[in-house]
Amino acid sequence: MKQLSECLISVNAERMELTRHGSQQFPLGVYTDRFSLYAGQSVPWHWHTEIELAVVVRGELVCNCGKSFQLHEGDGVYIGPNVLHSFFSIGEPPAEMVSIVFRPQMVQNEQSVIWQKYFAPMLADVGFSEIKLPPNGEEIQLILEIVRLEGGGRLCAGQLLPRPDNPLREIQQLSLLTRLMEKMVTLHRNIAQKELTPVDPAQRRLRQMITWLSVHYPEPIRVEDIADAAGISESQCYRCFRQLLGQTPVQFLNQYRLERAAILLRESDQSIASIAENCGFAQQSYFGKLFYQATGMTPRNYRRYR
Prior knowledge:
Layout: E1 28-34, E2 42-46, E3 51-58, E4 60-64, E5 68-71, E6 76-79, E7 85-90, E8 96-102, H1 113-124, E9 130-132, H2 138-150, E10 154-155, H3 169-191, H4 201-216, H5 223-230, H6 234-245, H7 249-267, H8 272-278, H9 284-295, H10 299-304
Parallel strand pairs: 1-10
Antiparallel strand pairs: 1-8, 2-7, 3-6, 3-8, 4-5, 4-7, 6-9
């Protein structure tokens, strides 16, 4: 049986990714995600302060990021800073995706006229925080060229791929990033509303609720309890989760519990019954059913082949 692994993204209680992308001197991360390697063929919910641009190079996947995009081979997506997002593969063959994650400050300093005149309005527009890139557009070609310069990127789980000997790699990638940001600014100006979309309070509320869930997930939880964590009604809670995550609160809670259970199956000797109970599942049979639906493996087999 093929061994699966989680897409290992280190996050805090609010699901903020803690991974450093690239280096402090050159903050650009280039990645290849092969979803066939991941349990559930998915990259779990997370957010980061960097920009992410991704292109599907094989198969199909769904990107959930406030909006839900179905992406086919050759399609790309832009995800702005601080946007909760996840990916999961659909159909056969399992999807493969390349992505670049970078701080826009590496292209221009925040004090520069370029930042103030061009970058700041785009980054401040919540209505432009996640978009599907134009098909066959230059944006996609620039992303792929940055990845090619890296030598194909690296697996999300951390495996490095060979990098070609190119003494000019960084300056060439920076040049491509500058062109890419120019294309994104142009795209923003073409589709942006006349006035900037105000800051969406739903993102703040969602993080409050996720933070509360990260502490209380082992306990019996009602949707009313989740809503109370953000001081909103149950209907607002449902709307917030559906709008931003494409899930109900209960679906997200079960997914979070399964992620914690997978960690315990890999890293502890606790019995499966204890893990189910410690992760908030009152019945081991229900835990096993959900775990199999998410990973294609029973908890016992997952532990054996982890």
